[in-house]
Write a sequence for this structure.
């Protein structure tokens, strides 16, 4: 029996060793779990902050993209509107020579017999033509007697006229035209200047 005791003691000591080793492994497992829990405990606190920052960044990016899209759409609409307004610019510019010719025909019609009916027909044609141009935003610029405006008129010459204020339009050689408020052709004018003796 004495021999069995040492075996039991040895077994007990072996068990103790195993238990100690197991305790060490359990302690390591607990410490790893604790450190994992610490990391998990730290992550939930950090994660919402990171997610909130990412969410704010995503919202900011989405708002910027939406604003950019709206700006592109607005610019495209403005370009379409501008193109629509001024698509006829060149065409109308070419038609102005027809208006000029009709006005010259009216000026040259004299008091000859039979010319009154012809002049009336030309005037009606000119008026109808101008009405069509007006529908499309074309308007005449006739600055006769007004102060000279370099935005809408081009001075062809200057003449001394003591009875007219200096820098006034005294004669319009060719009318100017605007298309939707934009200068299509400047008026060709003569401008008064102060007499040289003054």
């Amino acid at each position: 029996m004495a021999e069995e005791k040492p075996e039991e003691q040895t077994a007990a000591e072996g068990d103790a060793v195993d238990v100690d080793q197991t305790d060490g492994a359990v302690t390591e497992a607990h410490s790893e779990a604790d450190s994992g829990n610490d990391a998990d405990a730290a992550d939930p606190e950090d994660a919402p902050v990171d997610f909130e920052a990412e969410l704010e960044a995503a919202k900011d990016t989405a708002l910027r993209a939406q604003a950019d899209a709206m700006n592109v759409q607005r610019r495209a609409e403005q370009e379409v509107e501008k193109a629509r307004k001024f698509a006829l610019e060149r065409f109308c510019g070419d038609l102005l020579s027809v208006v000029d010719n009709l006005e010259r025909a009216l000026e040259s019609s004299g008091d000859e017999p039979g010319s009154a009916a012809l002049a009336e027909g030309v005037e009606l044609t000119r008026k109808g033509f101008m009405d069509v141009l007006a529908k499309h935003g074309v308007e005449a610029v006739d600055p006769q007697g007004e102060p000279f405006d370099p935005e809408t008129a081009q001075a062809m010459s200057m003449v001394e006229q003591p009875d007219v204020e200096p820098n006034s339009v005294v004669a319009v050689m060719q009318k100017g035209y605007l298309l939707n408020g934009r200068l299509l052709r400047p008026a060709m004018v003569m401008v008064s200047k102060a007499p040289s003796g003054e």
In short: The longest helix spans residues 4-86.
